Every structure is written in C-alpha cells, then in structure tokens.
C-alpha cells in the first residue's frame, strides 16, 4: 500500500529530503516490467517507471529530464491525471549559472509540492530531514559486507522506495565476504534485473559497491553541518548537483575522476557494466570505462523482461576467472 501523500520519482538529482521537508512521502521505487509492453526504441526502465506511475496511487510523479527516454515517458502520459512534474537538470555543471538554475528548479518543485498537498517547510525541517537521510545512507552502506549482493540491492531498493530501513538487521541469506570483489556500474536496475546479482554470488563473486544509477555512486556528498544551520537549501543543492558524477553530465570528467578514484581505493578486481537497450550514453562510454579501470569489464545488456539467471552464468564465470 502506497502511503498517503506519496511522491514518486526516479532520479538521484531529485532530493528526497526536499520532498519530505514539505510533509510528503518521497518514493523512488525499483520498477517492475510486469504488464509493460515493450516497444521499439523505448527504454525498458523508463517504460516500467512510467507504467508504475500510471497504475499506482502516488499523488504525483516527478520526472527528471536527464535523458531523452525519461522525457519521452513523461510526455507520453496523462500529465494532468498523474500530477506530473518535469524537473530540469542542466547537463553542464561547472558554472554558477547552472547551479542557480538547479536551485531555482528545487524552489519550483517546492511550489508544486505545496499544490499537491504539501506545505512549506517549517524552520529547521529541511536540515532535520537532511541529517536523517544521511544517517540512513551511512547505515545502509555499513550493512553491505554482511549481506549477499542481491540482499543488499533489495535493501537499497526498500530504502529508496520508503525512505527508511528496518530496525532488525538480518544478514540477508548469507555472508558474501569470501567472493571475488566486483564493481557494479551503469544503468539503474529493475526488479527483474536482480537475477544478475544471484548469478554473481553463485559463481563466487560479490558486489562490493553498487555504482549503478540506483546505487551509491549517485548519492550526494556528505552534508556540511555548518551550512545546515545557515542555508540548508543551498547546501542540499550543492551536495546533489555539484557532486553526483552522472553519465549525462557535460563535461563528464567527474564520472571518470570518480572511477579513477574508485580504482585506487577499492579492492575490486573486475567490473560488471549494465545497460538497458537504447541507453546510448553508457554504451558510448564503454571504451573509456575499460581504459580508466584497466581491469576486466563485462558489459551486460538488460533485456526488456529481464534475462534468466542461466544466460549470465557463463559470462560471469569468465569474468571471475579473468579477475582472480
């Protein structure tokens, strides 16, 4: 059951703290392909998210037009009936004008949230939500080593969908510390894509960092406590817009700086790069990703309805043999 006042969104550039500060429930669900009709030239992830918006009972949905596929999904639907909001994120990010534009979009989103049942944040509410979400993200990251790759991905999805974590910390069906460490990189995952993580675990690997667009790479930087008291909205905007190394950004130096730093500091021996059909941004960057990481990279195409675990097993096993 979707909580009252739920706002569905898909992009890491839409801060859940901002939605929660307006008294609404932020929800970034992991979409399911169930009931989604696959169409030529249509991204399965974008189609699944849009279908979930149409069939769900969220009071509104926020689409960030960070790719043409999401823009198309937003424009194809009934914007009035679904309470849709198009959130514009500049591709350029190194200029003061781009930062001002992003902050202006946050304020415009805030006015929309008030129209669909929210209220203007009370003093201290935004800073409080920022601290709460940061604690949850830190806790979620700390649970990774005691869980299987899939279990942690499911917990991450639960956190994004509900903005909370369960009190009891189970180990998720097994400890994955002993496997060959891998980096998971690329497009966001749907529920039907999690079988890939099962294949990795069964083959003797483990994901030590989910750097997909639904994972930790697209979390904001840690908040500056000094700025929380003086200008929390400015701090929120800078932590998100100024520091998330997304593939669509131009120039995309931040993404490859992030990958180079991950290569230096994380003990992964290989990378699984996942892309959805029609995700040209990640496909175009594959050669440069291989060059920067200088380690085995397995490129996996995620089919519209998901791929059976067995079809991944041989390729995952080959990657692990090269990475051992």
Provide an overview of this structure.
This protein has 324 residues and is an alpha/beta fold. The chain has two domains: 6-122, Rossmann fold; 125-231 and 245-323, Rossmann fold (3-Layer(aba) Sandwich), CATH 3.40.50.11900. 46% of the residues lie in helices and 13% in strands. It has 13 helices and eight strands. The protein has helices spanning 16-21, 44-55, 68-76, 79-82, 96-115, 125-142, 149-162, 195-202, 225-230, 232-241, 253-265, 280-293, 309-323; strands at residues 6-9, 25-27, 60-64, 84-87, 180-186, 205-212, 270-275, 297-301. Strands 2-1-3-4 form a four-stranded parallel β-sheet, with helices on both faces. A four-stranded parallel β-sheet has the order 6-5-7-8, with helices on both faces. The protein is globular.
Helix-strand string: EHEHEHHEHHHEHEHHHEHEH
Mean pLDDT: 90
Count of DSSP-assigned helices: 13
Low-confidence segments, ≥5 residues, pLDDT <50? 171-176
CATH topology of the largest domain: Rossmann fold
The total number of structural domains is: 2
Give the spatial strand order of the biggest sheet: 2-1-3-4
CATH domain class name of the largest domain:
Alpha Beta
Beta-strand residue fraction: 5-15%
Structural class, judged by helices and strands?
alpha/beta
Overall 3D geometry? globular
Strand count, sense and closure of the main sheet? Answer: 4 strands, parallel
CA gyration radius, whole angstroms:
19 Å
């Amino acid at each position: 059951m979707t909580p009252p006042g739920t706002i569905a969104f898909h992009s890491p550039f839409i801060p859940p703290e901002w939605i929660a500060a307006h008294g609404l429930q932020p929800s970034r669900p992991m979409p399911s392909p169930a009931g989604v009709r696959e169409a030529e030239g249509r991204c399965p992830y974008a189609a699944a998210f849009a279908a979930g918006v149409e069939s769900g009972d969220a009071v509104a949905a926020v689409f960030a037009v960070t790719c043409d596929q999401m823009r198309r999904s937003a424009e194809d639907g009934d914007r009035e009936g679904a309470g849709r909001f198009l959130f514009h994120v500049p591709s350029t990010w190194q200029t003061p004008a781009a930062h001002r534009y992003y902050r202006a979009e946050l304020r415009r989103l805030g006015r929309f949230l008030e129209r669909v049942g929210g209220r203007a944040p009370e003093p201290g509410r935004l800073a409080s939500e920022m601290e709460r979400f940061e604690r949850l993200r830190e806790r979620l990251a700390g649970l990774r080593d005691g869980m299987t790759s899939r279990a942690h991905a499911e917990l991450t999805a639960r956190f994004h969908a509900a903005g909370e974590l369960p009190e009891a910390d189970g180990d998720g069906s097994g400890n994955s510390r002993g496997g060959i460490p891998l980096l998971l990189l690329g497009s966001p995952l749907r529920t039907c894509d999690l079988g890939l993580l099962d294949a990795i675990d069964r083959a003797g690997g483990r994901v030590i960092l989910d750097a997909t667009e639904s994972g930790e790479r697209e979390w904001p930087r840690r908040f500056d406590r000094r700025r929380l008291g003086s200008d929390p909205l400015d701090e929120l905007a800078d932590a998100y817009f100024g520091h998330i190394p997304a593939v669509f950004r131009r120039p995309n130096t931040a993404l490859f700086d992030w990958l180079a730093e991950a290569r230096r500091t994380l003990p992964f021996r290989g990378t699984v790069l996942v892309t959805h059909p029609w995700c040209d941004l990640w496909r175009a960057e594959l050669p440069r990703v291989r060059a920067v990481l200088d380690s085995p990279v397995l490129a996996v195409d995620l089919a519209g309805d998901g791929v059976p675990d067995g079809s991944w097993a041989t390729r995952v096993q080959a990657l692990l043999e090269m990475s051992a």
